[in-house]
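haha ok so turns out i had the wrong file open the whole time. this is the CORRECT one, sorry everyone. sequence first:
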Amino acid sequence: MKISRNPICVLARKELVTLFNAPATYVIFVVFLLISGWLFVAPLFQLDQSTLNTFLQPLPLIFTFLIPALTMRSFAEEFRGGTIEYLATLPIRDYEIVLAKYLAAMGLVGALMFFTFLFPLALFLVGRPDIGQMIGGYVAVIGLSSLFVSIGLWSSSLTRNQVVAFIMAFFVCFLFFLLGRIADFLPGILSSFVRGWAVEAHFEPLARGVLDSRDLIYWASSTVFFLAASLMVLHSRRWR
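then structure:
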């Protein structure tokens, strides 16, 4: 079977084109690049260090707003416009729809992060940055994006209202972000357990260039969980 005829690839391409045709996408791109550019450049000469830390550290918080905004229309718009019923008549399985939406959203985030490659290039011009830290940092961004995209898809699958989908996704993503702070006020074993679910506990080591299989497993398993939840919601809606 040719790649171009693969239902997942066809649907992902169509979804990605739709996302890039939305004016809100470009607004989000510009706002993010302005904020991230300022976070990177402003402290660069003050710290006199060739590092991506000033750009990477705020990303978990920034992505709690950004990714829900990018994914809120994924399923909600399909339900509102009735196009999900058209998809249901095609020989396409539910998991192919979910994977296509996921790949399209990840492709959009990838396009956004592509512009940030200017930051590592700038560091090479002014110093000798740690290549391992750079690679680990972008691996952390991929893991964080993957989890938040899957949460955004799940939230969007629960409603036909994009605003409601954004609020739900933001709340869940922000909860994952806050778990590390909440753990500081909990005793012993409970604190360690809660901190183990916090995104920062798995984002920061990778952002420092420390590759740990436990962090990779965290991103992969949590992403699969929310994608499976999206699949269950979609399947239940189809058979109502």
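The radius of gyration is 19 Å.
again sry for the mixup
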